[in-house]
Automatic annotation (TrEMBL):
Provenance organism: Actinomadura livida
Ranges for domain Intradiol ring-cleavage dioxygenases: 43-111
Coiled coil: none
EC number(s) from the headed UniProt entry: 1.13.11.3
Recorded GO MF terms: ferric iron binding; protocatechuate 3,4-dioxygenase activity
Keyword NADP: no
The organism's taxonomic lineage, starting at the top: Bacteria, Bacillati, Actinomycetota, Actinomycetes, Streptosporangiales
Keyword Oxidoreductase tagged: yes
Keywords from the named record: Dioxygenase, Oxidoreductase
UniProt-recorded name of the protein: Protocatechuate 3,4-dioxygenase alpha subunit
Top EC category: oxidoreductase
Length: 188
């Protein structure tokens, strides 16, 4: 759809908001399983997407992109197709009624000079475009000090990018879209 300018010539189409999501084909059954849970190096990442009032966002969609445990970025096509054994580097999960999401993946290795992290995209109603953030791991504190992106984030806001450890192979990463303790989002 295009809009007309004051002189009648076509103008740019305004952006539309993202969501609520069509439940067909975007979330898919194996989307949150970047690796199968039976792998000895599998980890669980769980969290919630919350709005500015701290209320759950029940219709958000999250995508993660990451390197494998050695810091290699998958370059082969077919990230959606899972064979039950391989690491794809990509996951997608819709939130439930409580705003909760989950992924089964591996802890990524460092890529270049950065600390190990997972790239996270959040699509949600009211957003014109997805927002981008990163999930870092609490045990990598030494690597955090040298990470160029974390170094550019004000010290008082860095904690919004670091998951909490909830067990040997389980992490919690809540995403706050606005308000108190808003997650740091990246501009591209």
């Amino acid at each position: 759809m295009t809009t007309a300018s004051h002189d009648g010539a076509p103008g740019p189409t305004p952006s539309q908001t993202v969501g609520p999501f069509f439940g067909y084909a975007l979330p898919y059954e194996t989307g949150p399983r970047v690796v199968p849970g039976w792998r000895p190096d599998a980890i669980d990442v769980r969290g919630r997407v919350l709005d500015g009032a701290g209320e759950p966002v029940p219709d958000a969609l999250l995508e993660i992109w990451q390197a494998d445990e050695s810091g290699r970025i998958p370059r082969r096509p077919g990230g959606i197709v899972r064979d039950g054994h391989d690491f794809s580097g990509f996951g997608r999960c819709g939130t439930d009624a409580d705003g909760a999401f989950w992924f089964t993946t591996v802890k990524p290795g460092a890529v270049g000079d950065g600390a190990p992290c997972i790239a996270v995209l959040v699509f949600a109603r009211g957003l014109l475009k997805p927002v981008f953030t990163r999930l870092y791991f609490p045990e990598d504190e030494t690597a955090h000090a040298a990470d160029p992106l974390l170094g550019a984030v004000p010290a008082e806001r860095r904690a919004t990018l670091i998951a909490a450890r909830e067990g040997e192979r389980r992490y919690r990463f809540d995403i706050r879209l606005q308000g108190d303790r808003e997650t740091v989002f990246l501009g591209f």
